[in-house]
Design a protein that fits this description.
Elements: E1 2-8, E2 12-13, E3 18-19, E4 22-28, H1 39-55, E5 61-65, H2 68-81, H3 84-89, E6 91-94, E7 103-109, H4 121-132, E8 135-144, H5 148-152, E9 168-169
Parallel strand pairs: 4-8, 5-6, 5-7, 7-8
Antiparallel strand pairs: 1-4, 1-9, 2-3
Length: 172
């Protein structure tokens, strides 16, 4: 599987403060099988998580997804890749589980793939915007590459200021 990595210099305006995390877009080619979960995306998140854990405390890391099925897969993937200490520290939940909670690093697992029914633009925008506001220092947004910009355009306040594509043959 190939994926592309872009870093943007975005600022999210929160009601209480101005947040300026680094935003990383990770485009991938994984499909959602069935449409409410994406195991390949979970493996890719686990790959990035191993790097982030070396730089941040695990209790400051959150992974958010719109679907309970994806949450289960993410937890299973973390259990396979890390010891119990990390598994118990990293917060993995749906958006409802992150109400009022901020983390140093947020991973957004959108689950979108070619089998997914096209989600409502307003819902997708709100999910990304609200979830990205939960990250204080870094935000990683995992999204299916093909057709995303054609289908949804680029969110103006999340538009990458500059791009750093990385072509890696990570097998998921």
């Amino acid at each position: 599987m190939k994926y592309q990595f872009e870093e943007s210099d975005s600022t999210f305006k929160n009601n209480l403060r101005l947040v300026s995390p680094k935003v990383f877009w990770v485009y991938h080619d994984n499909d959602c099988i069935p449409k409410w979960k994406n195991p390949g995306e979970a493996k890719l998140i686990n790959h990035y998580l191993s790097d982030v854990i070396q730089r941040f405390s695990p209790d400051g890391i959150g992974i958010v997804t719109p679907f309970a099925e994806q949450k289960k897969i993410l937890i299973k993937e973390i259990k396979q890749g890390f010891d119990e200490f990390y598994v118990g520290q990293i917060l993995v939940d749906t958006l409802h589980g992150f109400i009022g909670i901020e983390q140093d690093v947020m991973f957004l697992s959108l689950v979108i793939g070619p089998s997914m029914v096209k989600p409502d633009y307003n819902y997708l925008y709100k999910f990304i915007y609200i979830s990205a506001n939960r990250g204080v220092k870094e935000v990683y947004i995992f999204i299916y590459r093909v057709g995303f910009q054609e289908s949804y355009g680029v969110f103006p306040d999340l538009n990458p200021a500059y791009q750093r594509p990385i072509d890696v043959g990570l097998k998921c």
